[in-house]
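ingest -> validate -> predict -> emit
validate: passed (alphabet ok, no gaps, 423 aa)
predict: started
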Amino acid sequence: MNSTSRYRIVAAGIIGNVLEWYDFAIYGYFAAAIGRHFFPHQDPVAQLLSSFGVFAVGYLMRPVGGALIGHIGDRFGRRRALIFSVAAMAISTFLVALLPGYATIGLAAPVTLTLLRMVQGLSVGGEYTCSMVFLIEHAPQRRRGLMGSLAPCAASGGILLGSALGACFAAAMPTETLNAWGWRIPFLFGLVVGIAGYVLRRHMQETVVAERGKRAPIFETLHDHWRVVLRIAGLSAFLSVSFYLSFVYLVSWLQIADRIAPARALEINSFSMVILLPVTIAGGWLSDRAGRRPILQLATVLGFATALPLWRLMHHPSAELALLGQLGMVLIVGLFNGALPAAIVEYAPPSVRCTAVALGYNVSLGVIGGLSPLAATWLVERTGDEIAPAFLIMATAVISFLVILRMSETRRGPFASAAAIAS
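emit:
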């Protein structure tokens, strides 16, 4: 494979993740404006809660989307699955930009918005895991960890792109204009990324596993490989909690616990996510040399040992110390996130690889990760201890570490790569 073909494969594999996490960021950024447009004129807090409720519905659809798009990937090919997911996300994001508000079409506005978010949730559930499978299957044996780490990097890049674009529009437009119609423009931009993704994927070579099972992939996975799904979910648990608490929940936590200004909290988080990109790539690269298990074990041990000290460091009115504490979490999360894709893709059976990875990963990310900010808020309220979220990270570090102990090293094991996949 020449360098041009490899670059096209990488671009085709990551562009859907950029789009989908871009949408994740801009929806959260403009949640207040969306609440005012699509829900009845009531208390502003109720509108915001309604907006985030619709956001949560999309998350709950992730396991369903993983099963659906995983089925397409295992039965009809990776290309078809990836084209389906990027098209579903691009079209639904574009329609959110054009959707009339509650004042124009009444109850149809929040209902339609909910349906569109469900479609986006379906797309996210299959896109991320299918793109991991695609990238790793097309990677040289000694670079599967590195190629796999590009999927989480693309997701982080999409979040940064959405946040940056949202901030630019907020700075360039008067608040009244932004709230009236300006928030729609970033959603329209999503169509451009979607078209680019469709074109890239439309021309990539189709790949289907040569030895397919006779049953539907979802039934074969749940009947014959349910232990694999549980182990992938358990392995992903540490990432689910540590990522969402360290990069989503933390922005609000810094404002409440440390009284850091919202703009400053966002600056700290954005800078940390920029540093997360090279650390994630380093995690994948190191897993190609030292093995998946050593890097994953190192990250979970560090997570257990340093979660409390790092959160105590972040629980400080000094923004510089808070940043230093979050950078410590960047090192831990980045190492784990870089090595994880290759580990779970190599561990999954080839005939149901997309489905098994999607189910295990999305159950963990969608349920455990999605509920972790709520659990952290409840824990702080019940205990009165602002450092309590660190205990959630420590608990999942133990869970994932125990799962790693029961998994064999896959770096040099047998693997059905792209060369062994039939057209």
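The radius of gyration is 21 Å.
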